[in-house]
Amino acid sequence: MLAAAGSLPRDDDRWGYEVKFDGIRALGYVEQNLRLYSRNGNEITPAWPEFAGIAPGTPPFVLDGEIVAITADGRTSFEALQPRMHQRNAAMIRSLAGSVPATYLIFDLLHIGDRSLVGLSYEQRRAILEQLGLEGRCWRVPPRLRGRGADVLAESKRLGLEGVVCKRLDSPYLAGRRSPWWTKVKNVNEQEVVIVGWKPGNGRRSGRIGSLLMAVSDTAGQLTYVGNVGTGFSAAALEELQASLARIRTEKPTVAADVRDVVWVAPELVGEVSFTEWTGDGRLRHPSWRGLRPDKSPREVVREPTAGGR
């Protein structure tokens, strides 16, 4: 089940609140062993060996949660998680598990034994989940946030958190659907984008990526150019992007854009940027790269509301 971007609900008594974590979504199938799947259905179990101790499940059960990297100040960092998201080399995974520890934050329970729970209300599912006692070195059930939505959001902003997710207490789990019964409200402006090309850089980046061309789908489902991003990249990220984009290079322009000296690519890779605001002509102002989103499909990428509004 996916959250729709929006504003705080007005009827607080009908809603529960959770921290919006800055990581990657993962379903956990807990039987004799644990199997993890990303939101686009890819098995990602080998990348996260530290979660194996959640199993066995007696009886088996299915979890929903977010894999995050927690920084020293207690916040979740999507950037810190990047080195681990794409790694499949076993030796490197073991090394990164020590240097970039991850935590599985579990917020829903979908199935237990031979019983599906998706038709139960969010409040009922959370109550059963909390009875399982899922507390380990690197996995846990984060607390629900109490109080008025406005107060919860204000406190999340004071603590430097990304935002909150508002969940209707009586909502069933709508698998594979984005529903306003789960609403995400952010404190910062972030936008998923489809990479449609790149411009060569200058100086140390001469002949390599200087900036990426970004696009999102409009209301008709057509990709629309929304500007370039040229900051926020680590050297490792640029190297990885260079290799990935070389494989999907195309001669035909991917979107309509008045930009010269572009190396066009097929619209297959999704990334995420932070930015200050949308300009009047539909461009992202001062975007900064946050990382690739291999768990997202290009067809899902649409313009999202800015922080605190629709």
UniProtKB/TrEMBL annotation:
Residues 99-218 form the ATP-dependent DNA ligase family profile domain. It catalyses: ATP + (deoxyribonucleotide)n-3'-hydroxyl + 5'-phospho-(deoxyribonucleotide)m = (deoxyribonucleotide)n+m + AMP + diphosphate. Its EC number is 6.5.1.1. Keywords: Ligase. Residues 284-310 are annotated as: Disordered. Gene3D superfamilies: 3.30.1490.70, DNA ligase/mRNA capping enzyme, Nucleic acid-binding proteins. It is an enzyme of class 6 (ligase). Residues 292-303 have a biased composition (Basic and acidic residues). One of its GO terms (molecular function) is DNA ligase (ATP) activity. It comes from the Bacteria. GO terms for biological process: DNA recombination; DNA repair. CDD domains: Adenylation_DNA_ligase_LigD_LigC, OBF_DNA_ligase_LigD. Belongs to the ATP-dependent DNA ligase family. PANTHER family: DNA LIGASE 1, DNA LIGASE 1/3 FAMILY MEMBER. This is DNA ligase (ATP). It comes from Nocardia aurantia.
